[in-house]
Amino acid sequence: MAEAIVSTILEQLASVLQQQVEEKVRLVVGVDEEVQKLTSSFQAIESVLEDAECKQVKVKAVGDWLDKLKDVSYDIEDVLDEWNTAIQKLRIMEDENASKLVTKVCSLMSCYRFCCRRVVKRHDIAMKIKRINQTLDVIAMEKNRFPLSSNSIKGARGVEREITTSFVDESEIHGRDDDKKEIKNFLLSESSNGPTSLPIISIVGLGGIGKTTLAKLIFNDHEVTAHFNKQIWVCVSDPFDEIMIGKAILESLIGVAPNLNEFESVLIKIKESINGKKFLLVLDDVWTEDSNKWEQLKSSLKYGAKGSRILVTTRKMNVAKAMRSTNFVEVGMLSDEKCWSLFSQVSFYRRNNEECKKLEGVGRRIVKKCKGLPLAVKTLGGVLRSKTKIEEWQSVLDSEMWELEDAEKGIFSPLFLSYFDLSSELKRCFLYCAIFPKDYVMKKDQLIKLWMAQDYLRTQGNKDVELVGGEYFKKLAMRSFFQDFERDKDDGSIVSCKMHDMVHDSAQYLTKNECFSVEVDYSKGFPLNSSYSKARHSMIVLKNSASVSSSIFQENRLRSLIFECDYRWRDQTCIDISNLFNYLTCVRALRFYGKSIADVPSGISKLTHLRYLEVSENNVIIELPEAVCELYNLQTIDISYCGNLNKLPEGIGKLVNLRHLINYRSFFECIYMPKGIERLTCLRTLSKVIVSGDKKACTFECLRNLNHLGGSLEIECSGVDLGEINKAEFKNKTKLLFLDLRLLSNVINEEALEDFQPPPNLERFGLYKYRGTSRLFLNWMTSLTKLRMLRLYGWSGTELLPPLGKLQFLERLVILAMKSVKRVGDEFLGMESDNLSASSSSSSITAFPKLQSLQFYNMQDWEEWDCLTSGRGGQDIKIMPCLRSLKISRCPNLKTLPDYILQSTTLEELVIRDCPILERRYRVERAENWVKDSGIPKFRIYEKSLFL
């Protein structure tokens, strides 16, 4: 960690000297020399830092010295950030003054006041630098007490091979076939019932041996899934919170988070939900040996049907016995050959045979040192995957880190070997994850933004810092520092992940309480201890109506403060922030989740260093104060799911460094968004913008220069002429992939959409509340070769659907609330008679050639869905040849499905909800018994309407 901080400071010191030249501003006399002295001291220290970080694990005094160095490094980082911010403010003020006509007197007065403040600020910064230099002198002298080598490990590593492929799928299991077979037999065999009606099977083994991976493999086995009516997975971890576990079980059973706070109510609901159902419950990572905490919960589970099972994973046999397990499976070490198979799969990926033979001998000796632990094997495989020289492999084999044996205390030698092989930037990113509690689901994009806020990401050239963060994440994932990946259903990209317990323990050990989480319970209060005062990054989990007073942060120098509310208490305001901002003078990332606060005080302007501000899922907050606009370093504002937030501050344009304005599902009552948005040319994310005709409001033209916008953008149009839409120059926004246009009742000239010039790489488009009758806007839609999803909602003037069958690349189509549509026919397929005649020379015509998913919802007047093109003109006509899923809901007058649906050979899922005529027609008891013979694996009819 210290190595990365010092490296960053040296870059910042060089930047300060450069800025003084470029900006023609200077600190007070003599400070240039102080800056040079700081630079020299840090350069001398930097040369021994890698060796010091390795030795700190075994030599406590070295660790203490590094702690002092980190403290002074953080101080100088803050001072340099103050200086850069002062320059930033000067630039913005000059730009504002240049754009305004002010009287000479007012201009002189303003200039005089600013210059006075500037002199004071410069003197303050200068004095801080001098004091820090004095402290650093002492630290620099202390390093001579230790025999630290200045030979750079980094230089010996060579250049890391560029990684161009995804990391190995960690779901691969090696050497556990017998264990899997034994556990499946316990789960599926009726003879394993024994004397109890609810057998408990425990998987016991060391940390990192693969217990959870084995349990997941069994949980997802097709025989197991077919055998049980309900499958429930709960991550337990430590401490054992019976209420949380009970609610997690209940949520899995009923599909929604239960609004219950009393344990007895939870138990009763569990009993009702599992009554008569054969279920499999997996309790992963159980630590408690207190059987009393388990008994009440167990009693409520005995009402399941015969054949129900509970599967437990734990490191300790005493835990399995305390839970009164009926069967035990002790997972042993992998054999050397199985370890080698796993290791070579990871480390030899895409190497040629000659390379593999050269490295095999050293590799097998490294694997032998892993002592049969799969986590160790995968971790070192990830380290060596990027190394091509046999000397680099030999260096890992000979490392003294193998002498660290106490894995249960967080000292896990293969993880340390992998950690010390990371670049200084990756080390900081990895250790930051210790801010989260064990088994916490980390959202990838949010994690990258938090890294950004701490300035952990080093950019090269014009590459976006977010892309660099994505590369860092990928490299850490390849080293097995992350696991349990959740992926996006559309593109397969990683959305979230977790850290293995032992990886988390290692990170916590290395941060020495610099990053950590703490739970606050109303009955126990805030667990203050001496280590918390040293925290730099902290996450506070609020439970059971707990409250937090800002006074506990008086002695803190936090750089990250994240409040996470237990979901049972998210509706309660429980954080006193009246004085909070007086203490958080160093904070760079601040997150309030749920209704934990009632408003954002104007005192937030004191947080000069703040880069990340999140106030999400809060329906209490009405507005953000203008003071937010004084936070010139802000990179991210996340106000998603704040439905009652009705305005952005008028000075939003001052936030010229803002890259992400995440306001998804917010501004339900907002009338306009202020001008000034056009100055935010660094924006990469803008979830929603309201475009209106108000003179002081954001217009289409305000979006013209926001060409870095990517991801998803929702545009709500109110009282605006759509003829202005091309002034936004969407054709230049090549990174914008998803676009939704929502038209309110006072929108003018909807026909202007015929000439719309959309973003060229659009993958998803939605058009809401369109009232025109023209379908010519499809001329530009057919040019979108990357359009995969289309959503049309609430068109009021259209009696016939557009010829959407012409969209050659469309994979998913959702049509909702088309009030005037009574019939869907050939025009929907793009195969009207005139079109077919014109294309008679073609031997084959395909409508919706790539469509996989089709949904209709709330089509109240829709009666007919037919097709008259079959065999017309002797042409080979294909309709939806790739369709896999069809869902129809709240279409009460629809009479039948067309032949091309009934005869589909690709359809895997058909869901009908709240469509009484279709329900009667396609019940299983029909004479033709179409449902039984259709071959559709998932055919469901629901009487209760649900949104699709």
From TrEMBL:
Q: Which residues form the NB-ARC domain?
A: 177-350
Q: Which residues form the Disease resistance protein winged helix domain?
A: 435-505
According to the entry, every stretch annotated as the Disease resistance R13L4/SHOC-2-like LRR domain falls at 603-856
Q: Which CDD domains match?
A: RX-CC_like (cd14798)
Domain called Disease resistance N-terminal: residue spans: 5-96
Task: Tell me the superkingdom of the source.
Answer: Eukaryota
Which UniProt keyword terms apply here? ATP-binding, Nucleotide-binding, Plant defense, Repeat
Question: Could you tell me which InterPro entries the record lists for this protein?
Answer: Apaf_helical, LRR_dom_sf, LRR_R13L4/SHOC2-like, NB-ARC, P-loop_NTPase, RX-like_CC, Rx_N, WH-like_DNA-bd_sf
Under what name is this protein listed?
Disease resistance protein RGA3
